[in-house]
Amino acid sequence: MEPAMDLMRRMPPGSTETALNALLSLLPDHSLDLLSQVDLPLQVCMDKENNKEYILCEYNRDADSYRSPWSNIYEPPLEDGTVPSEEMRNLEVEANEVFSVYRDQYYEGGISSVYIWEDEDESFIACFLIKKDGQGKRGYMQIGSWDAIHVIQVGPEEEGAAHYCLNSTVMLSLTTDNKQSGTFNLSGSIRRQMSMTLAVADGHLVNMGKMIEEMEGKLRNSLDQVYFGKTREMVCTLRPSPEVLSMRVPDS
Amino acid sequence: MSDDGGAGEPLSGDQKREIAVWFLANAPAGEIHYVAKDVRALLGDDAAYEAAAAEAYPEYNKTQLVSLELPDRSGDIIITTYGELDRNNYLDPRTAQVATVDHVKQTCTKLRPAADEELPSGYIEEFRNAIDYEVSKYVGEAYPKGVSAVYCTNGKDVEGPGADFALAVVISAARRSPQNFCNGSWRSVWTLEFSYAFQLVEIKGKIQVGAHYFEEGNVQLDTDVDRKDSTILQSPEDTGHTVATIIRHQESEYFSSLEESYLNLSDATFKDLRRKLPVTRTLFPWHNTHAISLTRDLAKELGIGK
After folding, report:
1. What is its subcellular localisation (chain A) (predicted)?
2. Do B221 and A185 make contact, defined as CB atoms within 8 angstroms?
């Protein structure tokens, strides 16, 4: 697995799917590991009943069908598709509602979906997904996409508190294209983890939401400042700007 | 590459080779050796790996314009199709030598003086040499790790004024900093078409810049641009000077546009995807989310909208 994961951090982010398929065929015995450790750009499907799009992932898949968080129905239709318990479904409905508002405030568009399942020992797993792509209303970007996957494991409630373990991935691609500056593409993905034990007094949704908001802020900042900053630094090392060069002359 | 989803079917040596070639060809600048190590471990089939390496390395070296030190340490040779005599032999036009290259090890093993028929005529060489001199001066100033070469790509036997010929200027600068999880390369190729009839030199360039940062993630910059310019046909010295000036101007203009793209990125482009803060400029009111749900419940009860 180690060489496989090393390859995944070297291949062009835009070719993740091809790279993953290649690894799957080389390592059929590790397919579960690979599928859980390599994230692919999110796909969407239309809930015809509600005329609303939803995001596909392992957490809403049963056989070849995907359950809509809006209608709780599988598409293509599945007779005995598994659905969450009533308690979980209620939380899921609320989470989808609230997360849509959150998504709209930060993303000014895009699609979001939340899926919740009970796990062993009275714990549960919630998967929050956001997909945003398009040209952007400010018009600088020709093609851009942001896919965020947040998976939270919520432990059983003990003495009024619960343990939350969040694993987040953001996959990003930005392309600008014009005659003067040609094609400029920056893309990539980063993954981070965050764990917290929090009082449940305000409800799970408030806690999960705050963690996701903090995490998304950190990921966005890292991508902007650190990751893009580092590639920019590299370009300036390859070809230092004239000011830097003239400053260096006395030293040499 | 072939997409046979035949799960369970063991891959044939040929399929393994094909997959390995794909990974090697997609290695970022300066990282093919790391990719090769991973691929070799994953394949568990040395014969398939060797075949893949033999196929992928030469293509990679030429695409990436890899530069190798000449065995006599007289300089660097750029691996490019323009200097390729055969699979393993490359011309270094500046020193008029032919280097034998080990593609997989990325080293030069042998060096011999180029034969007369491998070199351009004296007339062409005057232009080639003058441009090479000026361009390498510019490259030395602009790129701390840059190398350049000028090749004759057409009409190398033209003996004097009256016929068309073409040269290509290749510039390659690479930085490897694996301990800082960062690698990058700047590549540019400028083709010069000398037209006697129009007394003109048509200049076309392609610049490609790549950078990879991979500490706890994988972020890659990938850019390319096509540029065009022209100048009148002059003496070799004057042409050399003008061509280098044009390339310098075009490349620094492109460098500025990259800087500008980065600025726009943080300020505007990124914001188009996800804002730093909501439109309200405050964090999301998670504590009031009950209100959101309540409004919904209320709306449901009252039968208002959706």
Report:
1. Cytoplasm, Cytoskeleton
2. yes
